[in-house]
């Protein structure tokens, strides 16, 4: 599997997960409280990515890409931990409830990277197909606190048609 294809698949999975994950925070904080916290966490995660990955900044040349990715993950985990400790009203929420902002950053970066590797049409086709497959799994199994919704034969046929469309889009001839 090419890097672009893997990135597009992961990006679609993240998009499908963001809504249910953010709904956990929304239940506790309300819509605008959730939006504020998700974007604050996303801003801090993006700022760390900027400092660690952009050229001509203080870490360029000192840390290899793997160590920079590890440092970004450690920074993000620290931010999530501080948010959780600082807001007593958020204790008791599942750990994944705080990932919406980080996933949002990953979606923006992943979409750009997938497009650079695959082109716009192929990247977005794979992202949407991956998003739909992941959404079907979330519905089927009730992940992230969602009420399970069983896949019917009609929904399964629709999903298979989407996958057929992806295969046709990815063909070179």
How would you portray this structure in words?
With 173 residues, this protein is an all-alpha fold. The protein has one domain. It has 5 helices and no strands. It has helices at residues 3-53, 65-86, 100-118, 120-141, 153-170. Helix 1 (3-53) packs across helix 2 (65-86) and helix 1 crosses helix 4. It starts with a helix and ends with a helix.
Which tags fit this structure?
173 residues, mainly alpha, 5 helices, flat
* Radius of gyration from CA coordinates: 18 Å
- Relative helix content: over 70%
**Strand element count:** 0
**Quaternary organization:** single chain
Taken from the alpha-carbon principal axes, the silhouette is flat
Pick out the low-confidence regions. Answer: none
CA distance, first residue to last residue: 19 Å
The major beta sheet can be summarized as: none
Order of helices and strands: HHHHH
Average of pLDDT: 86
Number of helices: 5
| Helix-and-strand structural type | mainly alpha
**Domain tally:** 1
Helix/strand layout:
Elements: H1 3-53, H2 65-86, H3 100-118, H4 120-141, H5 153-170
Tell me briefly what this model is.
The protein is an all-alpha fold and 173 residues long.
């Amino acid at each position: 599997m090419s890097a672009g294809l893997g990135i597009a698949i992961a990006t679609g999975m993240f998009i499908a997960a963001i809504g249910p994950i953010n709904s956990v925070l929304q239940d506790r904080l309300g819509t605008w409280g959730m939006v504020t916290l998700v974007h604050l966490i996303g801003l801090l995660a993006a700022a760390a990515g900027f400092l660690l990955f952009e050229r001509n900044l203080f870490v360029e040349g000192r840390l290899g890409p793997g160590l920079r990715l590890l440092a970004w993950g450690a920074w993000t985990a620290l931010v999530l931990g501080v948010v959780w400790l600082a807001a007593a009203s958020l204790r008791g929420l599942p750990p994944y409830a705080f990932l919406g902002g980080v996933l949002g950053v990953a979606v923006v970066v992943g979409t750009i990277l997938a497009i650079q590797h695959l082109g716009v049409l192929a990247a977005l086709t794979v992202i949407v197909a991956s998003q739909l497959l992941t959404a079907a799994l979330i519905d089927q199994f009730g992940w992230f606190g969602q009420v399970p919704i069983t896949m019917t034969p009609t929904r399964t046929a629709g999903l298979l048609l989407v996958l057929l469309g992806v295969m046709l889009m990815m063909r070179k001839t």
